[in-house]
Amino acid sequence: MFITAVSQETKTLSGNYNNIPLVQLLMDIERKTTYQFYYLDPWIENDSVTLAFDDLDLQNILDLALNKTSLNYYIIEDEQRIVLLENTIIYDELPAGFFGNKTNTDQIGTNEPKVKAPPPPPFYTTSQTKKTYPVAKIGKSDLNDLQERYVLTGKAINAKSGELIQDLTIRVKGTNLATVTDATGTYTLLLPVGYHILNIRAMGIASTEREIIMYNNGSLNLFLEEGLQQLDEVVVEADAFKNVEEAITGSEQIDSETSKNIPLVLGERDILQVAKALPGISSAGEGATGLNVRGGKTDQNLVLLDDAVIYTPQHFFGIFQALNPFTTKGVEIYKGAIPVEFGGRLSSVFDIRTKNGNVEKFSGEGSIGPVTGNLALEIPLKKDRSSLIIGGRGAYADWILKSLDEESLKNSNASFFDGIVKYHDKLDDNNEIKATAYYSRDAFSITSDSLYNYSNRLFSARWDHRINDKTTNALIIANSNYGFGIDYESSSNTDFDLDYSINETEVKYKIRKTANDKHTLDYGISAKYYGVNPGSLEPKDNSSAISPIYIDEEQAVEGALFIGDELKVNDKLTINMGVRLAGFAALGSATQRTYEENSPKNESTVQDTLSYGSAEAIKTYGGPEARISARYLLAPDFSVKASINNSYQFLHTLSNNTTVSPIDTWKLSDLNISPQTGYQASLGFYKNLKDNMFEISLEGYYKRMQNVLDFKTGANLFLNENVETQVLQGDGKAYGVELLLKKKSGNLNGWLGYTYSRSFYKFDSDFSEERINNGNYFPSNFDKPHDVSLVTNYKFSRRYSVSANFVYQTGRPITYPIGTFRYNNSDYVAFSDRNAFRIPDFYRLDLGVNIEGNHKKNKLAHSFVTISVYNVLGRNNPYSVFFVTDDGEVKALQSSIFAIPIPSITYNFKF
């Protein structure tokens, strides 16, 4: 249909159009009037119109015809021209209020609100280089709706498969504005009017930039190509805001590659040593086994390798990790708010994950160093679906003991090895299975007559199942075993074999459900069985005069129900909250003593001895564990977080050493030893700077603990069937502030960490034999108020870089003899209060040079050489201070682990 009538008196038109090209309407108007239209053909060639009007003026006709297009118009009456405009508008005068309030006398003294000036029209320039995508113009300007910011929405879509892409990061270049697509691939951004460049990143998606111009609210769907970038580079970009945006406090993530360029002792990669360079994590001393996290004891850390507990993840007195760096993907550390699925420890969780093997081609990686040899192989079983990864390490470390500054170790020897096998099979898009088997063993001889050994063995199997787009679940079965032994042979007839072991088996089922855009639920159930051999001593042969000793085995069950919810209250506030109902039961068969009330536990106060049958409950413990953490965005790159949680721990270590020993034993809670309990509160601020090049965080914490174990003076803990008479249970408290400044990109990268922390314990009682330091708080063995770590790496080129690692720590507490006295014609030493003094402060500088082979594609193997010097300054840092009597005089001596610079060169290869 066409325009049928024109009223010359009023310049109105009548017409009827049904789904015809817009250009036809414009041509009809030109024929029936004196107006001419000016536009570009591509603007209207795809637009059609359905419109009926009767005696309607030209302006209203154009309003109706262009309503659903991106076009505006401008009428030049004098020249009878109509100019069409794509998205934008023409300002023939400044909008009212552009310069703010009028200043004439009519407004002076009135209460009229100040008129807010509308934003200026968007002006922009773009590069003239060829673009992958054209500039996207969003919305069209409207004089009746002028705002400073407009909303951009859309979906991220895989251009090849059509699947929606979640967890895709969209960042506005040159600003701190950013967002992440949700489970439905949808994103929303509030942007200022004008020109912007969007940086688009996601795992497995080609990095993309899109130029846009915001004129009004509108949408832009992003059709993206699959990417070929290396996985680690994509992960870094995708997690650029993770430290700011996640709701959990006190979490750290280390990938295995991070340890590649950090100079460590004897050139060994070690993610646990890297962890000690982070704020809030330390150890009792150089060469000490175990980690102390935020003032907690070493037994308060849950260390998991592919969901199975590993009790001693270190070799060789803590100098090396017991994890193969070439099969290890990384570790997630939780030292503040612990996710609701984890439990059983008070201080932290180290969730270590191994890599999945290469499913496309056979490959491998290895290294040869001064102490260890290492090899890992990745074997595809079914292309693009299943694989096997096998890793093994062996040590030839005897020469180290001979070089230590300790005469008694000159004739010692030591060796260790570990092996790991992982099977991975992605059955289909909805099902994936993984299975890991691991074994490690250390053997060392400090003296010529004793051979010590300890070992870890674990197995885990995991089935991940995707029920639908919003729900996934996982079934996990894991078994762990830790044991040690002493093989003693002497010239006398006192040869013996000593053994200890702890074994645990766990089944866990967990579900993750995205209920809606605001709620993500995690819930499940776990059950665990413990079996402990507290120790046995057997004569080595019939000629030995040693009497056998067998301590009754211990067993217990532990279980938990847990549910958590990550609630997105709004764009700024996210709350992660949950509850874990934990329970524990010590089981027979066993015998347990009872003691007189209001009396110390010793042989003279035994009241009765109770016997329990097989699987009979001896004592049950448990209760709810609350977990809550919240994050509030002060700006897109600046957040404040707070958390509080409480925990139960049903296991304890028994040790009367200052530092952790591989022959320390684990003890289950029972009738006379209660579980450890505690709570922690933390508050932190997190900020990213310069397009996420820098991360800075400041976090403070306060922790209280109850029923922590310590030993009585002169306690005999091992092979003691009534160990409750040798230990004390008391209270602990810890508090501190952690500062971390990290530079993530550029030729110079690394981090600076500082921790101020205090850790105290108190053992008080009405009875003097159960008091320490008169029942007052005293510093723990690992109380180090000041801890500074600087880790840096500078890349000269893709092949050459240098690294440095500097550590400073306050000396740890120690108990000194402060005098002697004579009693009954015998000389005795009087000691200070426990931990009343400190050994000298610790500091160390390490340097390294990293040389990569050339990057030619067609090579048999790619190489990487690390040349490092550990303890460059030759600082004689004391490991321990002990006292001897020489000619009636008490003398203090100190021993050190590495008192001289230790150079090393390690050759790494990859094929």
Automatic annotation (TrEMBL):
Topological category with respect to the lipid bilayer: Multi-pass membrane protein
Keywords per UniProt: Cell outer membrane, Membrane, Receptor, Transmembrane, Transmembrane beta strand, Transport
Gene3D superfamilies (alphabetical): Carboxypeptidase-like, regulatory domain (2.60.40.1120), TonB-dependent receptor, beta-barrel domain (2.40.170.20), TonB-dependent receptor, plug domain (2.170.130.10)
Organism domain of life: Bacteria
Annotated ranges, domain TonB-dependent receptor plug: 267-344
Signal peptide (from-to): none
Matching Pfam families: CarbopepD_reg_2 (PF13715), Plug (PF07715)
Family (UniProt): Belongs to the TonB-dependent receptor family.
Protein name: Outer membrane receptor proteins, mostly Fe transport
